[in-house]
Design goal:
Elements: E1 15-23, E2 44-45, E3 50-57, E4 63-69, H1 76-90, E5 97-101, H2 112-118, H3 125-149, E6 152-162, E7 166-168, E8 171-173, E9 176-178, E10 190-198, E11 214-221, E12 232-233, H4 236-248, E13 253-258, E14 264-266, H5 272-290, E15 295-297, E16 301-311, H6 318-324, H7 330-346, E17 352-362, E18 366-371, E19 374-375, H8 377-386, E20 391-394, E21 403-404, H9 407-412, H10 414-417, H11 434-449
Parallel strand pairs: 2-12, 4-5, 11-13, 18-20, 19-21
Antiparallel strand pairs: 1-3, 1-6, 3-4, 6-10, 6-15, 7-14, 8-9, 10-11, 16-17, 17-18
Domain Neutral/alkaline non-lysosomal ceramidase N-terminal: 30-108
Protein name: Neutral/alkaline non-lysosomal ceramidase N-terminal domain-containing protein
Pfam families: Ceramidase_alk
Length: 456
């Protein structure tokens, strides 16, 4: 059943916009990403994994693209390769290309460090991971090009709704933080929605007529895509939500931008039917936003990308790493081997990391921020308070990285605050000042792309 979108409060400036979708489901069994306890590769498909792109051009000819991918993370190296190729092939500046992962835990693992940690050592999974990584880069470049080729005259508008199946998963207990649902912990119920509609009148250079039905619907929510634990490729609740939105609006391509979901899980969970139910709940929220009174989103489009150096605590010394290399747990042995190799090859272990912060400014109407890694929900809540106007905070963008805790979470510890670092190639937990470093960098980036608005 299709539905008509509501009209915006006033006409937005004309844009040119296009969309594209490519299936990225592996052609062969691969090890799956996200859950360390899996002990076998993928053995089927619930629905296709997808890469989707929304290409935009403002009235000045400025190009940009938003890409969403059904994988756990998009490593920095993939972003750098894809942005370089898109710049040379299509003329899209690297700071104007935002690549985000939907963070599905039912997609392929192609990061060699993780495959060394968890995959069957006698299987072909490291080789398949490297091959899939090459394919993914090609698919991302292609989906951007296809979206650019699809551009037609368009208007853009914004609204939002609310959703409630996300719950905080950091529960304070007597001896620390338990990794279970906490109904009293902070959550972000907002579902931001961007609607791209055909601008009635001009059509495109190929003679296609423009119309006012939704051409693209971008939606977000701060919640892990971890309803399902299994061995079949699937986009989890977000994959179902996109499909339900596209059923409601048959002319639209639906894209999902995950928010600051580092400590947010869907509940209830662990059943495929629950993933479908959460997807339907989300699609209903998106429909509510689409059919409400929306704000026009006008140009010009301004973009900015910057790396903020953030620091880790001091790394373990050589003796500690040598001891860790003899641990029973394979993930600890791989971590130790990785850090010892770095120490032997460079004479040191890196204690800083370039953390990506990206901002898209749509005139004075909307600021979209992309943050790397698994950002805890308080970042999104704080930034929407600290920045003026309509603000959309997306995470899992442009780099895999690790969890990004608040200063309080670092103090409290627990999985996101400290424990997870043992499953990464990084030297140690992040310094407590990471929160303020990132918040200030986002404020500066937002100011760069706004047409006169400043932070509060």
């Amino acid at each position: 059943m299709s539905h008509q979108a509501s009209e915006t409060t006033s006409d937005g400036d004309e844009w040119r916009a296009g969309t594209a979708t490519r299936a990225i489901t592996p052609d062969e069994p691969m090890w799956m990403a996200g859950f360390a306890k899996r002990d076998e590769p993928a053995d089927g498909v619930v629905h296709d994994l997808e890469a989707k792109a929304l290409a935009l051009e403002d009235e000045t000819g400025r190009l940009a693209a938003i890409v969403t991918v059904d994988v756990l993370f998009v490593p920095r190296e993939i972003r750098e390769t894809v942005t370089s190729r898109c710049e040379s092939r299509y003329g899209v500046d690297p700071d104007a290309l935002m690549i985000t992962a939907t963070h599905t835990h039912c997609g392929p693992e192609f990061r060699d460090f993780k495959l060394r940690m968890y995959a069957d050592e006698d299987g072909p999974y490291r080789e398949r991971g490297a091959d899939y990584r090459d394919r993914l880069e090609d698919e991302l470049v292609s989906v951007v090009g296809e979206a650019l080729d699809d551009r037609t005259a368009a208007t853009i508008s914004y609204s939002h709704a609310r959703c409630g199946f996300a719950m905080n998963r950091r529960l304070p207990v007597e001896d620390g933080i338990a990794h279970v649902q906490n109904p009293y912990g902070p959550v972000d119920p907002e579902v931001p929605v961007l609607v791209v509609e055909g601008a009635a009148g001009d059509g495109d250079d190929d003679g296609r007529e423009a119309d006012s039905s939704p051409q693209a619907i971008v939606f977000g929510y701060a919640c892990h895509t971890t309803t399902i634990f299994g061995t079949k490729y699937c986009g989890d609740w977000a994959g179902f939500a996109r499909r339900y939105v596209e059923e409601e609006y048959p002319d639209a391509t639906a894209l999902f931008l995950i928010g600051c979901a580092g400590d947010q899980n869907p509940y209830p969970r662990r059943e495929l039917e629950l993933a479908k139910r959460h997807g339907r709940t989300m699609a209903t929220a998106v429909r509510a936003a689409v059919e409400s009174r929306r704000h026009p989103v006008r140009g010009p489009l301004r973009t900015h990308f910057v790396d903020q150096e953030i620091a880790f605590e001091e790394p373990p010394d050589r003796a500690e790493l040598e001891s860790m290399r003899e641990a029973d747990e394979r993930y600890l042995r791989v971590r130790a081997e990785t850090l010892l190799t770095e120490l032997e090859e460079t004479g040191t272990i890196q204690t800083e990391h370039p953390y990506p912060v990206q901002a898209f400014g749509f005139g004075d109407d909307l600021t979209l921020v992309g943050l790397g890694g698994e950002v805890l929900v308080e970042y999104g809540l704080q930034l929407k308070e600290r920045l003026e106007g309509l603000v959309w905070i997306a995470a899992y963008a442009n780099d895999e990285f690790t969890y990004v805790p608040t200063a309080q979470a670092r103090y409290e510890g627990g999985y996101e605050g400290e424990d997870v670092i043992l499953r990464t190639p990084f030297s140690g937990p992040l310094e407590p000042d990471v929160e303020e470093r990132i918040l200030r960098r986002v404020e500066a980036a937002a100011e760069r792309v706004r047409g006169g608005r400043t932070v509060r």
